[in-house]
Each structure stands twice: as C-alpha cells, then as structure tokens.
Amino acid sequence: MPIKRKATIRPVLNHLQPQGISDISEYGAQFDDVIPMWFGESDLVTPEPARRALIESLESGATFYQAQNGHVALRNAIAAYDSRLHAKPVQADRITVTASGMTALHVALQTIVDAGDNVVLVTPIWPNAPAAVQIMGAEARRVSLINQIDGRWRLDLDALFDACDDRTRAIFVNSPNNPTGWMCSREEQQAILDFARTKGIWVIADEVYHRIVYDRETAPSFLDLAEPEDPVLAINSFSKSWAMTGWRLGWLTAPPSIFETLGLMVQYNNSNSPEFIQAAGIAAIQDCEPFVEKFRNYCTTGRDILRDILGPVNRIQIAEPEAAFYAFFKVDGEPDSMALAKRLVREARVGVAPGMSFGDESEGWLRLCFAQDPKLLRTGLERIADALR
Fold it and tell me: Are 11-45+290-388 and 48-288 the same fold in CATH?
C-alpha cells in the first residue's frame, strides 16, 4: 500500500498573520450601535457621474475581455490626470490599469522581486504591503518613522539607506502615509530617488492618498521628479479620492520599457479589469473633480472636529495629520492596542483599528478614520474622549 503524504501550502504562508483590523471589526459585530471608524474608507458614496457611467457601459453590452494593460481611453485619461497634477508629463505607455491598488502592488512585486530578496519599507504601514512582500518569499525590512516630541513624524534617511544591501530590490514609501498622515517631502523624495538610481534598485511609491492633503492640491510625488525610465513604480487607486473602495480599480505608473511585462503580469493574474468599471474610472477623472474638492473639505471638517474633541484629552498623544484621513494616537498607560480597541467597542460603542495592525513599532497606538459624517464623527469622538479621561 503506498505511503500517503500530506499536501501542504507554501511554508512562507504559514507565517502570514490575520489583520488586526479584521479581528476588531469581527469583535465589534457582536455589539449593537457601534460607530465604525476602523476601516480606511469614508461613508460617502461614489459620485453620481461614475455610477452612471458604469450603468451606461453595462447597458451598452460592455461585458467582454479588454486589453491587459487597460482600455486605451482610461490610460489616456490617467496620463492626462497625472500630467496635470505633477511637474513632469506622463505618457499613456507608462500606465497599466489594475483591479485595485493592491493588485498594482502585487503586479509590481511579481515583476521585480524574487524569493530571498528584500524590500525596505518605511513604517508604520498598512499591513497588506509587508504581507505582499512576504508572500513573494522576500524579506520585508522595516524602517520606522521617528515620532518627535512635537508629535510630528520624521523620516531618518540614513537609517533607510543603511537598511539596504545588495539583496534589496526596492524601497517602499507610502506617502501620504497610512496610518500616520506623514508626507514625504520633495527633498526626501529626491534623496531616495538619487540613492535608487545609484544602487540600481526600485522605488515603489504608494500614493493613493495624494489628493487628501490640506495645504495644497496634491502631495509631493515621485512623479514630479522621475524621468520616464527612472526606477519608479507609482501605485494609485480610485478608492480614496473618488470614494470607490468597493470598485477595485487602480493603476501603476512605470517605465515604458516594462509596459509589456506589466501587461503580461496582469494577464496572468486576472486578465484585465472589467470595461464597465474602467468606464466609471474615466468618468471619475473627467467629471468628478468637484467631488474630490468636496471630499477634501469633508475630511478637513473631520480633522477639525478631531482636534477639538481629542486634542484636549490629557492622556491622548495626538498630532494633526498632514494628509490622508486618519488620526493615529497613543493613550498614556495603555500599552495593548487590541485590548484598548476592544474596550472602546464594549464601553464606548466605537470601533477603531489597533496599532499592532501596522507593525510592532505601532503597538500602543490606535488609528481611526475621520472621513465620516460630522454629526456621527462628533458623537464617536466624544464617546472615546469620555472613556479615556
């Protein structure tokens, strides 16, 4: 009788951890009337022109396979959008449309990273990024932002560069940053790009929050600095600026020399993004700029409410975020972020994300999304303040 051997999954996947955000949201589902601020999305619905474009596309029968790099009309629209917002023009042969920003990250990593390589990430960071590196069998090396006495976050460029070696394939920078609201400055971006050019490594720039910024139209971008063939892979998404989280549509801006390779990676992952969803993306870019401004004002109101309610609470260490729509704060005497998040669910009926979700360096911190209806946000923040006084 033949010996039976158990079929196994890849060993590297045994070390993947579930997101703490999912854990706390599942915990909160046991309770009534919890105000949810744990996920990275607003309560605003997608603007009407994008919704209408999808309906019209579906009704026209647009349900067939599309070009693997994306419909040319959407790539042209994205190229024009990038060119308008950034200091250097972007051509459509640098744009690859993907089924979400997360898919763009996986496609980028599949293109440049082998098992045994490493990717250096600026942290704290949303958990999907280091997990995606780990899934590739590569090492995720974390270089933490420094939280200064005034509460501002600062990047130590020397520490970032010292973490790189001859197995480093990329530096990953999420700016504006989830969860801290930190923005990488133009000078820091130039230094990182110069280093990458010298070392022959890639910069993966996650810029999905680039329009959620409070003192300018758009955050500093590596696309302001990079020449077409520079080693920069810029990830963006329709999820945040246009409130399209559930649509799963993003894009990757990359050197034109790897355009065909990226198309192959899309083909082997999911063939293409649906045409009717791409139609909504075109409408978002071309017809929904007023919504982007409205949304930024919505987030500004949320940030003001946050400052007024949580700012005076003595136990809370919090700084006004420069960008994105998150408050990242620490509570004196509360070292266990999951335990505190669960207590806030039980006692305050408010759901926030535990800092441990964003890495060991974030244990003891909490994140909440303030892109919420002002009345509901005020109620939730007052409950948090009362529970923590």
Answer: no
CA distance 258 to 88: 19
Give the E-state strand segments of 133-249 in sequence order: 139-144, 146-147, 153-154, 168-174, 202-206, 232-237
Q: What is the DSSP annotation of 238-288? A: STTTTT-GGG--EEEE--GGGHHHHHHHHHHHHS---HHHHHHHHHHHHH-
pLDDT single digits (tens) 234-292: 999 999 999 999 999 999 999 999 999 999 999 999 999 999 999 999 999 999 999 99
| Statement: the pTM of the whole predicted model exceeds 0.90 | yes
Q: CATH for 11-45+290-388?
A: 3.90.1150.10
Q: What are the pLDDT digits (tens) for 187-207?
A: 999 999 999 999 999 999 999
Tell which residue, 294, 102, 70, 299, has the closest CA to residue 208: 102
Region 36-63 average pLDDT? 97
Report, at the CATH architecture level, how domain 48-288 is classified.
3-Layer(aba) Sandwich (3.40)
Q: CA-to-CA distance for 126 and 357, rounded, in angstroms?
A: 7
- Cα separation, 146 vs 311, whole angstroms: 21
Domain assignments of the chain as residue spans, ordered by start: 11-45+290-388, 48-288
pLDDT tens figures, 305-360: 999 999 999 999 998 899 999 999 999 999 999 999 999 999 999 999 999 999 99
CA angle at residue 206 from 23 to 146, to 5 degrees? Answer: 75
